[in-house]
Amino acid sequence: MHSKEFPWAQYKPKDGILVVQPVWITEREIQFLMQLYAPFIGKEATLLYATLYGELSPSEYESEVFSISELLSMTNLGMPDFYLAKTRLEGIGLLKTYRKEPTASRPQTYTMELQAPTSPRLFFKDALLSTLLLNQIGNHRFEKLKQRFLLSKPGDLGENDSAQFEEAYRLPYNMESYTRNHAQENRMVLDSKQQPEFEFASDVDWDLIEGLLKTEFVDLNSITKGVRKIVDALYRAYGFTEQEIAQFLVIASDLTTKVIDEEFLLKLGQEAAQDKVTQLRSEEVVEAPVTEPTEVQVVEGASEEELAIQQLIQAAKAMAPIDFVSSIKTQKKGYVSKAERQLIFDLVSVSGLPNEVLNILFHYALVQLDNATLARNFIDAIANDWATKEIKTAQEAMEAVRNRDLQREVKRKQQLHNAGKNNYRRQGGYQEQLPDWAKDSQAKEKQTPAPTESQSTQVSSDLAEQIAKLKTSNQREQQ
Length: 479
Fold this sequence. Notes:
Elements: E1 16-20, E2 23-24, H1 27-41, H2 43-54, E3 66-67, H3 68-75, H4 79-91, E4 95-100, E5 109-114, H5 120-125, H6 127-148, H7 165-168, H8 182-185, E6 190-191, H9 206-214, H10 225-238, H11 242-252, E7 253-254, E8 259-260, H12 262-282, H13 304-318, H14 321-331, H15 338-350, H16 355-368, H17 376-388, H18 394-423, E9 426-427, E10 430-431, H19 436-447, H20 453-456, H21 458-478
Parallel strand pairs: 1-5, 2-6
Antiparallel strand pairs: 1-3, 4-5, 7-8, 9-10
Helix pairs in contact: 1-2, 1-6, 2-4, 9-11, 10-12, 10-15, 11-12, 12-14, 13-16, 13-21, 14-16, 14-21, 16-18
């Protein structure tokens, strides 16, 4: 199978791995990993990180080169689980991977650059990281962890009686024997306190937001990287406009201290998203005929199914994930649960998948598979797979869905075939005869008529109906 279908196929057992630590990692950072990151990155990703760290000598910048097969043996992971664990570490900023092409003297080699986990102070200050942890372990355990890493206030220590530098040391007069090597100093391993911040791309029109905030007397210097990270996640996950986000920033801003409360900002956005969901559910969904979309070029002579797919792609591009899911849930007489809202937010924050791709994934789970809810493990597994395949458009996501269904059908038929072979026995050229009840059942199956053309078009009709409702819901919200 091509690596486009299975992205881990690009990795071969003989490929080499070199582990490096540009930031000096200690057991203190490993403790932070186990307590703060492990609950939401998963046991496989945690094991992979710890194993890679174990290959570093306590006093070395880099490890010896070893093979992927050795790594799989050490972790007891299969290639798909290894790949998934690696992408989870990369997605949260704990690992960077670089590839070197093979040569005549060495195989293809991957340099895995371990990044140090952030300190508890910065972790709990980062609204996105702390939200991922809170969602996984619950508020009680979350507060216990925060208390564990709080500094206790010391009592009265008395007067400072420490010696001063000049009391203990005398500088030498002759330093000609020592020449500093600045280029070498710049290559020294960094301490964990100097680690770079986890970067997060932004799709928001910040010029528009800053222009709106100037009229509200909000200090633009209060818009930190953390604030931008939260705003971008709210923008993508819940479909807020720049005008709405500017209002959130005004409410979350303290004009006295000139600081924007990141946790309050995130809470404002999530509560506003819940209000949008409630409003959508309270409104009656009016069915409308499927009309030809103006933004999608319809191929002349396209079938009903092709037209429905084109309109699904249009809806996926036009709607925010929370609105898209809410519209489907309303049609199914359901509702978007708190866990589903959090899942949508997490995917937007971490996966890097565009909204239109996530919407196709949600449609696949809720409509095509007819699941009642978005199951985190199922959705997360497919999202990870699509992220590694670098799926960027709704069209590519639809193709991935087709390929996945095709693989499932091939596997199902193979299982049926194998089951038939197991029931078919030959002994010395004698073929076992079927019993009478089995012959009757087999005869009835042969008499069962094949699916009619009307039945085969039912799927496309249902899809068209779903798109019509999605489109109607979206148009109503924009009015």
